[in-house]
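Q: I'm writing up a methods section and want to include an example of the input and output format. Could you take the sequence below and give the corresponding predicted structure tokens, formatted cleanly so I can copy it straight into the document?
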Amino acid sequence: MVQMDGSHHDWLEGRGPWMVLMGYIDDATGRIYARFYDYEGTFPAMDSFRRYIREHGIPQSMYADKHTTYQSWEKLTVEDELEGKQKRDTQFGRVLRELQVTLIPAHSPQAKGRVERLFKTLQDRLVKELRLRGITTKEEANRFLDEEYLEGFNKKYGVVAKEPADVHRRVPKGINLDRIFCIKERRVVRNDFTVVHNGQVYQINDRVRASYVTVEERMDGRVHLYLEGKRLRCTKIDALPVRRKEVSSKPHVELPDKAGRQWIPPRNHPWRRFRVGYAQY
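A: Here is the clean output for your methods example:
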């Protein structure tokens, strides 16, 4: 099991921006992984976890708090209930489910005390190391973590697990991690075969007969459309054409004003032409 959380702190002591340290600690060995981000959210959680499994493998379970990045509190839809779901997945929760990682919710800070104690240690020791090296940016801080700090920390404080077998799983061959570590949304296909995602319009170039498609937004900003696992060709549309209003051939009729005055048709109104005695006007 791996405990994970984000620590909001002035890691650079005013020399740079406030950052969030996404931290992971293995419950059996105490080995850690960490990386700095601008905020705690879906993409930082995905990016840090992908880097974690690249180095250590896929864990069996993950212990996390009730942050909305990890757990959703939205009501189940009818489709969710028909599928037998007990709770809606967040995007990060879907990633864990597709990788067959069990998400265990922590109901209090004390429940995930190990990662909380880790942050308390790092806020003391890591902050001093960053100060001694004069680090002022997120990029420099992450480079220091990768090249020096994490390896030295794990050698000094890591322990031997009681069971010799490492239950981390290797990433299966042939699996496309880009299609897992992304934002997946179901979108309506409009009558003109366009799809709207985050205010951007995409024109489907393939012939499809479907009411919905899946939009996958990758961490590098690329957007792909899929239908039943098949990628669709699409084109980003910068702006929709403006539809001109049709000009009516009917005569213009003025409506009564808001004051409630009685409306009197003009002398050339068609209604007067069919009245007896029109000539006297």
